[in-house]
Each structure stands twice: as structure tokens, then as C-alpha cells.
Design brief:
This protein is mainly α. The chain contains eleven helices and no strands. The longest helix is centred in the last third of the chain and has 40 residues, at 163-202. It starts with a helix and ends with a helix.
Length: 240
């Protein structure tokens, strides 16, 4: 997330020619009423929303949820660390969002950088790729709930849904999906915990907690079945 913000900050010098064209004479963007300082302030303000957008409007949400449930199921409180899990989630998110980011770059960012369109036009052109991704994974029930809460009339097609409706509906849908996958992940490790607890209780060994005794068996099982490959592969295919 910080890397993405840094890339946008480094791109500010490239924005200045486009902004001058937008406020200068003879350009296609004379209707823009914002000067260069105001456009920089608006862009820096928008960067504060970038982490929230990455965490909630991308596969990052589902991936981090599943990896968190996996670590809890294994019983390893701090291994892998939060930094490792977040880094893996971010790299997988970038891989999955590459087609959407490519479309936004080609259709909105590149023309805006070259001064061919205004910032408002760039925002309009960047919405369809993101909307197409959100529509694929937002459940109809969650979309209907958002429409009811906002008191907006339902559109003719799903492609006409407003991003203000799609974003919270997508978050709700991803939370449900992430918790479903997490519950399934817990089951095999829960069985191991029950077996170990039953054995230790039967032999009267109560000096050590059963969770501590079952942790090596859970880790060994996870390594033997190549768990990381299975989990990451299943997660990536769930967005296919």
C-alpha cells in the first residue's frame, strides 16, 4: 500500500504538464477550474483513501481473512508474522488485479497524463473496469440491501450500478466468503485438537495443555500436504 502511494507521489511531476494543459490555452481541458496547486492538494488527499481502497475493494480482503484464519487454526500465534502475511496478500492482490489496473491505466491514466482528458473525465473512464470486477463478486442480496438502505431505485442492469452501492456490497460479500473458507480450514485442525485432547485426558497427562501438544502435529500435517501451495492455489482460483 505504501509502495502504491509512493508510485503516485513520484508521478506528480508527470501530472504537472497535464495540469498546465488543462488550465492553459488551446488545450482540450479549458473547462477545468482547478489550478496546479489545487490539483496537487486533491491528489494528495485522495492518496489517504488509497489504503482503504486497496484493503476493501480488491482481493486483499478475502486473502488476508483466509490467511488469518489459517494461522489461528495452526495455533502459531506469530508465525508467519503479520508483515509476511500482509506482504503475501499484497503481491497476490497485485497479480489478480493486474488486468483491471492495466485497463484503468490505458483508458484513464495515460490519456490524463498526456493532457488529452481532464481529471473528471479520467475518473469517469476509470470506473467501468473497477465496476466490472466488483459486479462479479458482489452478491445480489448484499446489493439489494445497499439499494434499500440508500433508497436508490434499482438500475436496469448490474453494469449500471453505482460504485457507492457496489463497494459496501462487495465488502459484505467478501467477508462472508472469507469466513466460509476460514470455517472449512478450521475443521481438519479441530479434529487433531480433539484427538490429542482425548488421548492426553485418557492417559492422565494434564501437565501440558492439549493445544501445545497438538501444534507440532498440525504443522507436520500442513507441511506434508503442501498446505501453502494448496491454500494459495485455491484462493487464486476462487477469483477465476
Amino acid at each position: 500500500m505504501r509502495s502504491a502511494a509512493l508510485v503516485l507521489l513520484l508521478a506528480l511531476p508527470n501530472l504537472l504538464p497535464a495540469a498546465r494543459t488543462a488550465t492553459g490555452n488551446g488545450g482540450p481541458s479549458n473547462a477545468s477550474s482547478f489550478g496546479v496547486p489545487m490539483q496537487m492538494v486533491l491528489l494528495l488527499g485522495a492518496l489517504t483513501l488509497l489504503p482503504a481502497l486497496i484493503m476493501s475493494a480488491t482481493p486483499f480482503l478475502r486473502i488476508t481473512l483466509v490467511l488469518h484464519f489459517l494461522r489461528q487454526a495452526l495455533g502459531t500465534q506469530s508465525a508467519p508474522s503479520n508483515q509476511v502475511l500482509l506482504g503475501l496478500s499484497l503481491f497476490l492482490t497485485l497479480l489478480l488485479m493486474q488486468p483491471v489496473v492495466g485497463k484503468v491505466y490505458d483508458e484513464a491514466w495515460a490519456p490524463f497524463r498526456d493532457g488529452q482528458i481532464t481529471a473528471e473525465q479520467a475518473l469517469v473512464k476509470s470506473a467501468p473496469p473497477l465496476r466490472g470486477y466488483l459486479v462479479r463478486f458482489a452478491r445480489e442480496k448484499d446489493i439489494a440491501l445497499m439499494l434499500e438502505l440508500s433508497k436508490m431505485p434499482p438500475p436496469a442492469t448490474r453494469d449500471d450500478l453505482d460504485l457507492r452501492i457496489l463497494l459496501p456490497a462487495y465488502v459484505l460479500s467478501e467477508l462472508k466468503t472469507g469466513f466460509q473458507i476460514g470455517a472449512v480450514l478450521f475443521l481438519p485442525f479441530l479434529v487433531i485438537d480433539l484427538i490429542v485432547a482425548s488421548v492426553t485426558l485418557a492417559i492422565g497427562m494434564v501437565q501440558l495443555p492439549p493445544v501445545m501438544l497438538s501444534a507440532p502435529f498440525k504443522i507436520l500435517l500442513f507441511v506434508l500436504v503442501d498446505g501453502w501451495n494448496l491454500i494459495v492455489g485455491s484462493l487464486m482460483r476462487s477469483f477465476g
